[in-house]
Each structure stands twice: as structure tokens, then as C-alpha cells.
């Protein structure tokens, strides 16, 4: 059986960072909108911040689903990680560079890693 420890560690760190950004960003937006609504940016800046939080949340969900599929369908999980990291980098204008790098690393490793010869002969 192929262990995917490195991929799981990289993906766990990326998911934790995405979750941290989602929680802190949401709390920040809620606190500012409740206590000092006059300090909220006008128009596009506010909605860009909300869109960045939404992309982080979607990336976290995709990361969790890829983490769960890592053992059974590693190639599909890896491809979904690579695609999501590219989408996150483009839509957030580079603010997810660390998370995207971790997800690309985990995605490439899970796509490239193959079963060893002993696993193939055993039928695993």
C-alpha cells in the first residue's frame, strides 16, 4: 500500500491556513460592519474582500474533499488540487501563494506517485 504522508501533511497545512484566513477574515468583516460600519470601504473594495473569503472557503472545501479521496482516487484528488490552486491564485491576485504552493505540491505528488512493484504483485 502506498502511503501518502507527505501529501497529507502538505494538504493539512494548506487547509489549516485557508481555515485561519476564512475565520479571521469573517470575524473581521462582521466586527467592522457591526461596530463601525462607516469605516467599511465603499463598493468594489468590500465585495472584493468578500469574494476573496469565498474563494478561500471554496478552496478549503476542495482541499478537504481531496484529502478524503487521497487514498482511493489519488489522481483525481491531485488534479482537483492543482486546478483549485490555480483558480485561487488567479482570483485572489496572489494572496493565496502559500496555500496554492502547498496544494500544487500535494497535487503533483499524488498524481506522480505510483504503486510499488510489491504492491502490484500482491494485488493491493
Structure description:
This protein is mainly α and 124 residues long. It has one domain. The protein is built from 5 helices and no strands. Helix 1 runs antiparallel to helix 2, helix 2 runs antiparallel to helix 3 and helix 3 packs antiparallel against helix 4. The radius of gyration is 18 Å and the shape is elongated. The mean pLDDT is 88. It comes from Paenalkalicoccus suaedae.
Number of domains: 1
**Mind telling me the C-alpha Rg?**
18 Å
Mean pLDDT, nearest integer? 88
Instruction: For the record, give the distance between the C-alpha atoms at the N and C termini, rounded to a whole number.
Output: 6 Å
Catalogue the unreliable spans.
none
- Helix proportion of residues, in percent? over 70%
Category from helices, strands and their pairing? mainly alpha
Protein name: DUF4064 domain-containing protein
Keywords: Membrane, Transmembrane, Transmembrane helix
Transmembrane segments: 9-34, 46-67, 79-109
Organism: Paenalkalicoccus suaedae
Search tags:
5 helices; 124 residues; 78% helix; mainly alpha
What is the structure about, briefly put?
With 124 residues, the protein is an all-alpha fold. Helix content is 78%, strand content 0%. It is built from five helices and no strands.
Amino acid at each position: 500500500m502506498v502511503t501518502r504522508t507527505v501529501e497529507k501533511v502538505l494538504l493539512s497545512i494548506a487547509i489549516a491556513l485557508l481555515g485561519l484566513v476564512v475565520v479571521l477574515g469573517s470575524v473581521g468583516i462582521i466586527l467592522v460592519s457591526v461596530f463601525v460600519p462607516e469605516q467599511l470601504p465603499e463598493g468594489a473594495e468590500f465585495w472584493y474582500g468578500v469574494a476573496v473569503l469565498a474563494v478561500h472557503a471554496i478552496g478549503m472545501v476542495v482541499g478537504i474533499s481531496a484529502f478524503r479521496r487521497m487514498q482511493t482516487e489519488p489522481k483525481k484528488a491531485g488534479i482537483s488540487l492543482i486546478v483549485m490552486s490555480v483558480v485561487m491564485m488567479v482570483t485572489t491576485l496572489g494572496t493565496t501563494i502559500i496555500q496554492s504552493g502547498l496544494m500544487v505540491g500535494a497535487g503533483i505528488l499524488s498524481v506522480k506517485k505510483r504503486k510499488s512493484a510489491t504492491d502490484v504483485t500482491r494485488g493491493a
